[in-house]
From TrEMBL:
KW Membrane (keyword) present: yes
Protein name (Swiss-Prot/TrEMBL): CAAX prenyl protease 2/Lysostaphin resistance protein A-like domain-containing protein
Domain CAAX prenyl protease 2/Lysostaphin resistance protein A-like positions: 128-214
Source organism (scientific name): Anoxybacillus tengchongensis
Coiled coil start-end: none
């Protein structure tokens, strides 16, 4: 693996671990004005994510500048084809995520919904600037690390299936929702496919940005409607159960 790749990975790990110190310091700094300690830590977590992710992105792009400069591949997809796959990849990721979610629910008994997403949505409501991290900065960092570096390095030596499996599982693990490993790994496979298909890391980045923006926007703007629909679905399931029991 190239030396600059290790710098990128170390930067990403340091960014993740920095919250252990940064969030408590920010919460007790007097900068956060909140009604209670729990809310103060939530707001501090949001602001620290904006700060740490932004700094990490700056360093990652700096470390990757030479690599990006000389990464041209004559087999790269055209701009028009890349746009098609970026948008199509977003739709494909949604479709794949839907299949994975149904498998988790009906085959493994995992509850529908993501605690990680719910927590992020609550933090976005308290710290709107966090939307930039969840929708743009986060996907850029994750695609550079998990697709460009990890998948790309493995793919030089191994086949697509093994390379995508390893990188996608790592991608899933860092989200710390082990009950949804299949969900995140499926998305990782889609983004790896987009990278191989177009030879442009920007394509899975755009698809990932669209995916995150869509999910957070839907759950932020239409949270009440979604909750109402879920209650109605639960009531309908109860009625059906009573009819056939």
């Amino acid at each position: 693996m190239k030396k600059q790749y290790w710098f990128v990975i170390i930067t990403y790990i340091a960014m993740q671990l920095s919250s252990l110190v940064g969030v408590p310091l920010l919460a007790h700094s007097g900068f956060i004005n909140a009604s209670n300690k729990e809310v103060a830590f939530s707001i501090a977590s949001g602001y620290w994510a904006v700060i740490s992710f932004s700094i990490a992105l700056f360093f990652v792009l700096y470390f990757m500048k030479e690599d990006m400069k000389y990464s041209y591949d004559r087999h790269q997809a055209s701009i028009g084809t890349s746009i098609f796959w970026a948008i199509g990849g977003f739709l494909l990721a949604l479709f794949a995520q839907g299949i994975a979610a149904n498998i988790e629910v009906h085959l493994f008994g995992v509850e529908m919904g993501s605690e990680n997403t719910r927590r992020i949505v609550e933090m976005v409501k308290l710290t709107p600037a966090l939307m930039l991290v969840t929708s743009i900065v986060g996907p850029i960092l994750e695609e550079i690390i998990f697709r460009k570096i990890i998948f790309g390095t493995l793919y030089e030596k191994y086949n697509f299936l093994l390379s995508a499996l390893v990188s996608s599982l790592l991608f899933a693990v860092v989200h710390l929702e082990f009950e949804h490993l299949l969900l995140y790994a499926t998305m990782g496979f889609v983004f790896a496919f987009l990278y191989v298909k177009t030879k442009r890391i920007l394509v899975p980045i755009v698809a990932h940005v669209l995916m995150n923006t869509f999910v957070v926007a839907i759950q932020t703007l239409f949270a009440e409607e979604i909750e109402k629909m879920m209650r109605e679905a639960e009531q309908m399931q109860f009625v059906i159960w009573r009819l056939f029991s």
